[in-house]
Amino acid sequence: MNKPFVACGRLQRRAAKAVCALLLLCAAAPLAAQLRSLEDAIAEALAGDPWLAGSEWRQESLRARGRAAGALPDPVLRLGAANLPTDSFAFNQEAMTQFQVGLSQAIPRGATRELERERLEALGAEQAERRDERRAQLALSVTELWLDSYLASRSRALIEGDRELFLQLQEVVAARYRSALGAARQQDLVRAELELTRLEDRLARLGEQEEVARSRLGEWLGAAAQHLETALPELAPAEPALVGEASLPAGRIAALLGSHPSVRSLDRRIDAGNTGVALAEERYKPGFTVNAGYGYREDAMDGSARPDFFSLGVAVELPLFPGERQDQRLRAAHADTEALRTERALLLRDLRAGLLSARARLARLDQRRDLYRSRLLKEMAQQAAAAQAAYSADDGDFAEAIRARIDELDARIEALVIDVERQRTIARLNYFLAGHPEAAQP
Questions:
Q1: In terms of Cα–Cα distance, which of 332, 344, 329, 331 is closest to 268?
Q2: Contact, 401 vs 387, CB < 8 A?
Q3: 120: how many CB neighbours lie within 10 A of its CB?
Q4: Residue 129 backbone dihedrals phi, psi, to 5 degrees
Q5: CA-based diameter of the chain, in Å?
Q6: pTM (predicted TM-score)
Q7: Residue 145 to residues 138, 157, 198, 209, 333, Cα–Cα distance (Å)
Q8: pLDDT band at residue 22, thresholds of 50, 70 and 90?
Q9: Digit-coded pLDDT (tens) for 283-318
C-alpha cells in the first residue's frame, strides 16, 4: 500500500476522533453550565432516575389489577345437544332430545372482591411512599458524592497553595548547605525533599478521590459530572430543635420518624396485610354459582308440538372442612401482618438511632468548628511563622520549622474536613426527617 495514502488515512482518523471529542465536550458544556449548584444536580439526578418511572408503572399495574379484582368473574355460556338417538341421530325422533343453551355466573365468597381490590390499592399506594424514600435516598447519595468531590478538590487547592512555601524552604536549605552557611545539614536537605515527595503523594491520592467521586456522580449526571464546579453547600436541618444539646421529647422524635417515607411504606403494607386477614376470614363464607338453561325440542315425527324446557339452579360451595385450607390461610395472613409490624418497630429503632447519632455528631462538629475558627488555626499559623523565623535567624531547627508548616497545613485541611462533615451530617439528618413538612430537598 502506498505510504502517502496510509498517512492520509491516519490523519483522517485522528481528525475524526478530535471532532468527536469536541462534539462531546460541546454537548456536555451546556448541561454542566446548567448544574451550577447541588440543588440542580439533585434535580437532574431525580429527573433521570429510571427507578422512579418503573415504580409509577408498578403502581399503575397494581391499580389495574385492583379494578379487575373488583369485577365479577366472566359468565360461562354452554351450548350442547342432549339425548340424541344413536341409531339415526334424528333430532325429532325422541321426546328427550333437545338443543340446550345454558348460562352460569359465579359469585365469589362474601366481600372477597372488594377486599382484594382494597388490598391491591394499598400495595399500589405503597409505591408512592417508596418513591418518596427513593428521592430522599438519592438526594443524600448525590449530596455525599458532591461533598466528597469538593473536599478532595479543595484539599488539593490548599496543598498546591502551600507547595510554594515548601519549595522556598527547600531552596533556602539547599543554598545554605552549598555555601556552608548557618546550621544547614544534609539531613535537612533530605527532609525537605522527603516532605515535597509526600505532598506529591497526597495530591495524587486526593486526585484519585476526586475522580472516583465524580465518576460515581456520573451514574446520575452523565458526562456533566466531570465538568462540575462543586462548591460547599449551606444546608440547614429541617427541624431547628435538633441543633444544640437540648433533649427532645420522645413523642416528638416518634412523630418525626413516624412520617418517614420508609415507615409510611410499611404502613401501607400493614394496611394491605390487615385487608388480607379480612379476606381470609371472608373465605369461610360460601360461594355461589347461578345457572340458567333453555332446552329446545322439535315437533314430533307425527307433527304434534313438544314444549321447550327451561332450567334454573344455584350451586353453593360449602366450607365444611376449613382445617386444612381456610384456617391455614387465616393463620398465614395473621403471621404476615405481625411480621410487618415487627419490621416496622425495628425500622423505627434504626431510624431513631441514626437520627440521635447524627444529632450528637453535629453538636460535636459545631464545637470543633468554633474551636478551629476562634483559636486553633490562628495558633498554628503563629507557631509556623515563629518556627520559620527562628530557622531563618539560625536560632531554630529545620525539622521543627517544616513540621510546624505541615501542622498548619494539616490544621487547615482538618478545618475543611469539619465543614464538609458538618454539611454531610446535616444531609443525613434531613434524610431521617424526609417526612417532615419543612424538609426540602437540599
A1: 344
A2: yes
A3: 22
A4: -65, -40
A5: 146
A6: 0.80
A7: 11, 18, 26, 10, 42
A8: very low
A9: 888 899 999 999 988 887 777 888 888 999 999 988
Q: For residue 384, give Cα distances in angstroms to 31, 69, 189, 324, 416.
A: 44, 77, 19, 83, 19
Q: How far apart are CA 187 and CA 5, in angstroms?
A: 60
Amino acid at 402: I
Architecture of the structural domain at 35-72+108-284+319-433: Up-down Bundle (1.20)
CA 184/CA 97 separation, integer angstroms: 126
Q: pLDDT, tens digit, for every residue of 332-391?
A: 999 999 999 999 999 999 999 999 999 999 999 999 999 999 999 999 999 988 987 887
* Residue 334 CB coordination number (10 Å): 15
Q: According to the 3-state scheme, what is the secondary structure of the chain?
A: CCHHHHHHHHHHHHHHHHHHHHHHHHHHHHHHHHCCCHHHHHHHHHHCCHHHHHHHHHHHHHHHHHHHHCCCCCCEEEEEEECCCCCCCCCCCCCCCEEEEEEEEEECCCCHHHHHHHHHHHHHHHHHHHHHHHHHHHHHHHHHHHHHHHHHHHHHHHHHHHHHHHHHHHHHHHHHHHHCCCCCCHHHHHHHHHHHHHHHHHHHHHHHHHHHHHHHHHHHHHHHHHHCCCCCCCCCCCCHHHCCCCCCCHHHHHHHHHCCHHHHHHHHHHHHHHHHHHHHHHCCCCEEEEEEEEEECCCCCCCCCCCCEEEEEEEEECCCCHHHCHHHHHHHHHHHHHHHHHHHHHHHHHHHHHHHHHHHHHHHHHHHHHHHHHHHHHHHHHHHHHHHHHHHCCCCCHHHHHHHHHHHHHHHHHHHHHHHHHHHHHHHHHHHCCCCCCCCCC
C-alpha 266/C-alpha 425 separation (Å) is: 26
Q: Give which of 82, 71, 72 is closest to 104, Cα–Cα.
A: 72
Alpha carbon 138 to chain centroid distance? 5
Look-up: residue for cell 313438544?
Answer: 306
Q: Say how many CA atoms lie within 13 Å of 304 toward its Cβ.
A: 5
CA 392/CA 381 separation, integer angstroms: 16
Angstrom distance (rounded) from CA 32 to CA 229: 9
- Bridge-based pairing of strands 287-296 and 98-107 is antiparallel
Higher pLDDT, residue 194 or 180: 194
Per the CB < 8 A criterion, the answer to whether 74 and 246 are in contact is no
Taking a C-beta distance cutoff of 8 angstroms, is the pair 228, 217 a contact?
yes
Distance CA 70, CA 76 (A): 18
Q: Which of 359, 410, 361 is nearest to 383 (CA)?
A: 410
